[in-house]
Amino acid sequence: MHEGSTQIIFLGDGMGGRPVPSLGGQTCLEAAATPALDKVAQGGECGYMDPVSPGVAVGSDTGHMAILGYDPSEYYTGRGPFEAKGVGIDVRPGDLAFRCNFTTAEDNVITDRRAGRITEGTAQLAAAVNEAFRDGIQGVDVIFKESVAHRAALVLRGKDLDPRVTDVDPHEAGVEVPLCEPLPEASNNAAAQRTAWIVNEFVHRAHEILQDHPVNQERQAQGALPANIVLPRGVGTAPDLSPFSERHNLSGAMIVEVDLVRGLGLYLGMDVVAVPTATGGMDTDEMAIAQAVVEVARGHEFILCNIKAPDLGGHDGNAEQKMAAIAKVDHAVGYLLDNLDWDSTVLMLGADHCTPVTLQDHSGDAIPIAFYGHGVRPDNVQTYGERACAHGSVHRIRGLDVINILGNYAGTLHKFGS
Fold first, then answer.
1. Contact, 304 vs 256, CB < 8 A?
2. pLDDT of residue 3
3. Global pTM?
């Protein structure tokens, strides 16, 4: 391994955004109280980052891949394998893996894509689904497992399967649950037709099982939304990714809250460190996360950390919630500022994508970023936010550039040429 400073990427998931009318035209990041993030900006080099390219909205999977130095256009095979790997399902060659949502539907119409952001009982629901499919579907094994909150993963294992099928999740409420169908280019492909039929059979039978499950009966008795249907999406096959340590010659660790990103870390052979009180929700223990970063930094040359909470407020269209989540990120960064040796540490502060509350989804807007610590040349930016960071000396970079910029500051890169 190279000698050099410890490199840390610290991401507030979906933290960037757009101006919010109720905040006087400020973004949530600009309106929130962020003394620690501002200190990073004041002592660092700031700019903008497009995870893939300008204007392209990305998922957390492709955003993290790019930031870690793996071009999604070359390596991405779908979201499902990362989700499945993250919950502990071994995705084998030939398997099809889906990311799923526990969802609420009434008369086949989606009323809430996240079942009221369910946080308890999904293990029992998943167990009931697995029991119902213990013999598979037409010779295809069905492996289903709950993830964090409303999320889950589905793996189909068998012969004559084809990933060229549509999502069952329409990404909006108030519409009918769509059928899985072969993509246009595979409309006459027998394996794609069979795969679509199997997915539809899974959704239909799982709905029958979940509709009257005791967990959902109890939820309804308490006035909560039932998680009575499962919607698969993001189908993919096992990716072929070189280990992080071999690609970058760094010992890498990951401290994240959702199984999607955890799965990516496992595929890359990184040490994925669990923080028991990191929930992936607004109740997450951001200080325990920050303390874990400091502890893990003693034995690793590279760490990626992600706090999920800001993304939730963006998706819910709740500016106050998103600002409170940004404050959590600020508290965590403040702990890092006080407890790391910045003569031998370099930090990249940013996000994997923007989730504006005015859009309630990921956008293709550039992400404000700041590099801080060893080797960094501070610019004149005084606050961390969308408009302020646009004036920084880093200017506008791609996600793939981050790992090289960090390596340059840390002194771990080989010279290009003689």
1. yes
2. 63
3. 0.86
Residue 100: closest CA among 259, 284, 240? 259
Q: Look at the block and give the residue holding tokens 């993919």.
A: 236
| Contact (Cβ atoms closer than 8 angstroms) between residue 74 and residue 137 | no
CA 145 to chain centre: 18
Report the alpha-carbon distance of residue 107 to residue 114 in Å, rounded: 17
Q: Which residues, listed in sequence order, are joined to residue 370 by a DSSP beta bridge?
A: 46, 349
pLDDT value of position 1: 38
Domain boundaries, the chain: 6-76+241-410, 83-236
Gap between the Cα atoms of 278 and 290, Å rounded:
10
CB neighbours of 359 closer than 8 A, spacing ≥ 6? Answer: 18, 314
Domain 6-76+241-410: give its CATH code: 3.40.720.10
What is the C-alpha to C-alpha distance for residues 227 and 117, in angstroms, rounded to an integer?
9
**Helix%, strand%, coil% for the chain, nearest 5:** 35, 20, 45
CA 180/CA 201 separation, integer angstroms? 10
Query: pLDDT-derived band of residue 148, with 50, 70 and 90 as boundaries?
Result: confident
Task: Give all strands (DSSP E) within 260-338, no chain letters.
Answer: 271-272, 302-307
Q: Are 51 and 367 in contact (CB under 8 A)?
A: yes
Whole-angstrom distance, CA of residue 320 vs CA of residue 267: 36
Q: What is the largest CA-CA distance in the chain?
A: 72
What single letter denotes the amino acid at residue 251?
Answer: S
Q: What is the pLDDT of residues 188-212, one digit of tens each?
A: 999 999 999 999 999 999 999 999 9
Radius of gyration of the chain (CA): 22
Length of the chain: 418
At 68, give phi and psi (nearest 5°). -85, 0
How is residue 142 written in tokens? 């069905």
Rounded to 5 degrees, φ, ψ at 385 are -175, 175
Q: Identity (one letter) of the amino acid at 24?
A: G
Q: From residue 199, how far is each of 139, 179, 230 by CA, in Å?
A: 13, 9, 10
Where b means 16+ CB within 10 Å and e means fewer, 125-162 reads bbebbeebbeeebeebebbbbbbbbbbbbbbbbbeebb
Residues 78 and 234 sit within 8 Å (Cβ to Cβ): yes
Residue 113 has pLDDT above 60, yes or no: yes
Q: Are 259 and 83 in contact (CB under 8 A)?
A: yes
Asked if 77 and 237 count as a contact pair (C-beta separation under 8 A), the reply is yes
